[in-house]
Amino acid sequence: xxxxxxxxxxxxxxxxVKTRERTMFFIVGxxxxxxxxxxxxMLSKAVVKARPSVxxxxxxxxxxxxxxxxxxxxxxxLQQRGLLTSETEDPFAxxxxxxxxxxxxxxxxxxxxxxxxxxxVLQDFEAMTPNLLARTIETVEGGGIxxxxxxxxxxxxxxxxxxxxVHARFRTESHQDVIxxxxxxxxxxxxxxxxxxxxDDELNILPTSTHVKxxxxxxxxxxxxxxxxxxxxxxxxxSLADTQPxxxxxNLCRTIDQGKAVVTFLDAASEKTLRSTVALTASRGRxxxxxxxxxxxxxxxxxxxxxxxxxxxxxxxxxxxxFIFKGLDALDYKxxxxxxLVESTNPAFAKAIVRVNVFRNHRQTVQYISPESAExxxxxxxxxxxxxxxxPLPVVKALLGPYLVFLCSTVNGYEGxxxxxxxxxxxxxREQGVKQGNQAHAQxxxxxxxxxxxxxxxxxxxxxxxxxxxxxxxHNVLCLNAADHVPRLIHRLPHPSECELYHVNRDALFSHxxxxxxxxxxxxxxxxxxxxxxxxxxxxxxxxxPAHRLFVLLPPVDEASNSMPDILAVVQVALEGAISxxxxxxxxxxxxxxxxxMIPWTVGQQFQDAELPTLSGVRIVRIxxxxxxxxxxxxxxxxSQLIRYYQGSPRGVGELSDLSEKDxxxxxxxxxxxxxxxEQGEDGLLEERLKPRADxxxxxxxxxxxxxxxxxxxxxxxxxTKELLAFWG
Length: 729
Hints:
With 729 residues, this protein is of the alpha/beta class. It has three domains: 7-219, Rossmann fold (3-Layer(aba) Sandwich); 228-458, 3-Layer(aba) Sandwich (Rossmann fold); 487-578 and 615-728, Gcn5-related N-acetyltransferase (GNAT) (Aminopeptidase), CATH 3.40.630.30. Strands 9-10-11-8-12-13-7-14 form an eight-stranded mixed sheet, sandwiched between helices. Strands 3-2-4-5-1-6 form a six-stranded parallel sheet. The termini are far apart.
């Protein structure tokens, strides 16, 4: 039976297309797959270009095979069993047959970096992680749709207690009870996203999405208004129109930031000093790969013969090669006459382009190499490193040499070492350039031995409109923009001896209350600014891992003040050990170290001692000190306070507080998780309204009010450097 779709859903999709903002749907129900067809149809009707492509991500099993012949057999079997009728299957079969769908395992989502899709479908909620969300959602273009498919539930609050696949890695022998705090905060955040609708599999909007009541259609004139940035880009194109080869190439750029980046790249290429590095950094979706591709086309026009391109996978270079060809076409190069391309024969790379041969004036090549093949770039004239943030830092440094280097990196960190690249490599190149420049100035001559660094940043999104609500939501829920928002210390800076360490209650921290959200963002800002390798998955480890605890070092707190105290340091620890002797002997005999319990298993295997893993202890996982007060003694103060706490004298009194574990639970300082507050009517899902819990425990607890766990040892694990050895020594 046909049913009229709620007009607000269509309005939201059409508004997104007009404003180039993305739209998100959270569909609860086993038949949500069928609604993907309807949503894609709405999107296809709203856009004026070709039928939008689809990225469909899943854990292990699709409802239907992605192979056409296998899918036909499955349909036949389902029809024979009476589980499929032509009325229900024809629309979906037609959708699959007529749409460009990229099916992708969650384990392979790293291969879609740099690609762009019109629609994203995410099924198998239990397999999702913050990294997967960050990778996939940012591939959707403006006006596109993101769809979450959730199996049937009678209440959204059941997602709060859902066991996620990643939780298996968080469990240790002595800590089995995982609390899905990340899920609760994630679901509550959807209600606050104005471009997200929660609905059931019949497209009935759930009451939690209250903001759609006031939705109104956007005027068509919004889509045609020219912004200041667009006007500036048009003026740049007009000024360079008669300049070869840069004029036709800049004409391909979509934003003024991208246009200026291409100009910078080609300026460096025209100098031909072969000792320059141009570093391009930006958030996801700013057109970095496209700018690199256009710049490579310009370098070919300038006569560069040996150009090497590297990336974690050749599939990440789809956009880059696409814009190399667009750039060559703009310069009147003809395929098969002036250049040809070579596709990979490796089945794992899905026929990705790995080489371009140009033979208009003389033989020129653009060749893909793996990041580990540093020896192959010795004769390069230009090396291009795309998505350098996803390549380990030592590998990137090994690739640098006596040739021009174009480097592009995502800096919001979820690809792995994004912050590491911006903090270490670029700062080292910057310092080297300043040092060489000072020496040259002092000696009154030019020194060409060092590398010249040029830095370019892209701010304006290219896939979607500036200020896209989905981007803001994603950055907030995964703390992706924390690195750029490290809060300044506004209060008096006390001596380290005046500062106290406080325990952070994780139930309160991840409750999605306004104050706790602000505190969490500040904590993550210190993490990202202080530690180089950060991923969004660290956030889920902080929230859900049962063995982990969080502490913050604060200055003396003024109880009369309503402002949030400055966070001087954050300490994350993991409780380890307390492993049964039988388990310790069995694993040591096999040489197997289970997940977690790093120090007990490492030291136990080293000394072949089955007694050591049975002892309980705590490992300091991370210490993050505010960048304005590093090397000021605050990290040392935090560690000393932590040691005294676990020794039983947090304030140096010498006696443990009388607060028992039962008292701690009753006062709200324990790690216990209370049932979320849900207003649920008789119809369950269609009447419930989710909101943050009101009966939250205090966010911070003084160590003097808590009873520490009984421990035998305290340790840490880190890669040895001179600075770290001095700190821990």
